[in-house]
Amino acid sequence: MNELDCYLDDKRNLVNQALKTCLPQKGPTAVREAMRYSLEAGGKRLRPILTLAVADTLNYKDNSVMDVACALELIHTYSLIHDDLPAMDNSDLRRGKPTCHKVFGEANAVLAGDALLTLAFEVLGRYGLNCGSAKKAMQITCEMAKAAGVTGMIGGQVLDLESEGKNISSSELETMSRMKTGALLKASVDCGAVAADATEAQKEILGEYAADIGTAFQIVDDLLDYESSEEELGKPVGSDRERFKPNYPSVLGPEKARQQAQMLYEQAINKVNELNCSPGLLVGLAEKMVNRKK
Ligand code: GRG
Q1: What is the pLDDT of residue 234?
Q2: 181 C-alpha vs ligand 1 centroid, how far in Å?
Q3: For residue 151, what pLDDT is reported?
Q4: Residue to probe by mutation, ligand 1, list 8, 95, 162, 181, most atoms within 8 Å of CB
Q5: 79 C-alpha vs ligand 1 centroid, how far in Å?
Q6: What is the pTM of this model?
Q7: pLDDT of residue 170
Q8: Would you say domain 3-290 falls under CATH 1.10.600.10?
Q9: 84: how many CB neighbours lie within 10 A of its CB?
Q10: For the chain, which ranges sit under pLDDT 70?
Q11: Is 235 in the pocket of ligand 1 (CB under 6 A)?
Q12: Does the beta carbon of 154 sit less than 6 angstroms from any atom of ligand 1?
């Protein structure tokens, strides 16, 4: 295993341990089981790892940043549970397992999603009590709420649902992707930067890096939906085509979509090379994100 893969494994294990401690010990079993089921279904933990990698890049050592990282994964998992519901993408498989509503029923899946979202903000409250800077914690809380909300992920999901059966332009597609997927990925980097006391110049560079890798990540996601297999991805493929949903390969063509992801990746690593600290980790993560197979 190379150095980056060891780093990713190590951080994934630490995030998994920390997430276990976030789960509530009290409350009705059905919803707690549904929360645990989805949270422990084997996600890549990309968003928390981005946060931790930014802190490591900036040489920030305080462990409290793990709470920020966990809050992002809690929000991400909630969004996947709700995205899979019959009222949205109506998907039976996620992370190689039956979706939350298939196992626990729709009502428990809705509530488990709501509970994970609420828990994220409880965890951020705890971060505020422990990190020693109420201002920093409030900044992170606002940033994350905005990324998950109507001008971010939820708004993007609305655009996504509305786009079904329509022809949309590449700029409309870019807006949708930036909101639906990019906003939370960018928040993972931006919140890591705030938590790690980045300078304004560092925040600017990291923000541009994050915007580019966020879009590249979505393009690759669309390409995988277009050309990969259910076995490899652990979720149904070709779902966009089946539902007449526009995506990068359908709007730009697969070849141009691939080139755009590559161009954004190169732009992101050029940007992060301007940081006044070693950017190897963030370069490696960007590379993993564009070359991923699931
Ligand atoms: C329901 C409010 C609400 C939002 C849903 C996240 C989302 C918005 C929809 C998911 C649809 C989708 C497949 C989007 C593409 C990008 C994406 C979020 C992929 C899944 O993220 P990964 O690959 O998943 O990081 P894992 O399972 O590894 O955590």
Answers
A1: 74
A2: 7
A3: 97
A4: 181
A5: 7
A6: 0.95
A7: 95
A8: yes
A9: 23
A10: none
A11: no
A12: yes
Give the pLDDT confidence score for residue 294 in this predicted structure: 81
- What confidence score (pLDDT) does residue 53 get? 98
Question: Ligand 1 atom 3: the closest Cα is on which residue?
Answer: 79
**Amino acid 242: pLDDT:** 79
The number of beta carbons lying within 10 Å of the beta carbon of residue 4 is 16
**Can you tell me the distance from the alpha carbon of 113 to that of 82, in angstroms, rounded to the nearest whole number?**
6
Question: What is the structure's pLDDT at 79?
Answer: 98
For ligand 1, say whether the CB of 44 is within 6 Å of any of its atoms. Answer: yes
Nearest CA, atom 18, ligand 1: 181
Distance, CA of 26 to CA of 261 (rounded, Å): 44
| Residue 236 DSSP symbol | -
Tell whether ligand 1 has an atom less than 6 A from the beta carbon of residue 79: yes
Domain ranges of the chain: 3-290
